[in-house]
Amino acid sequence: MVSALPDGYQGKFVLVVVATAAEGKADELQRLITAVSRSSNDPDKEPDTLTFRATRGLGVDSNKFTIIEEYRNMKAWEFHQSTEAYKTMKESRTIADVTLSFTQEFS
Fold it and tell me: How many CB atoms lie within 10 A of CB 53?
């Protein structure tokens, strides 16, 4: 499931991603997300990515990953999707299901 920013939205937003790893692929997905995190948190590589925090569920939820991403604007998110680390993860077939929620911080 993917939500979307309203047409014409300008400015900062937070993206909450919940990804479920494909069967037997959780450890590989974690390695790929770690590579995306390194790229995202490097201001020389992604200066308009403000936050990229990844978590992995515990116990029976160890195949679920929640990622909190904050971008200065839509162009920053589009740039993020063009990075090698992101494209490698997306093409890896390690994700069985993903939900994206575009949100706005209010406090």
Answer: 12
Strand order, beta sheet including 49-56: 49-56, 64-71, 13-21, 95-103
pLDDT tens digit string along 18-43? 999 999 999 999 999 999 999 999 99
Q: How many CB atoms lie within 10 A of CB 30?
A: 17
Q: What is the pLDDT of residues 42-90, one digit of tens each?
A: 999 999 999 999 999 999 999 999 999 999 999 999 999 999 999 999 9
Q: Is the pTM of this model over 0.90?
A: yes
Q: Which fold has domain 13-103?
A: Alpha-Beta Plaits (3.30.70)
Contact 71, 6 (CB under 8 A): no
Compute CA distances 78 → 57, 74, 86, 87, whole Å: 27, 6, 11, 12
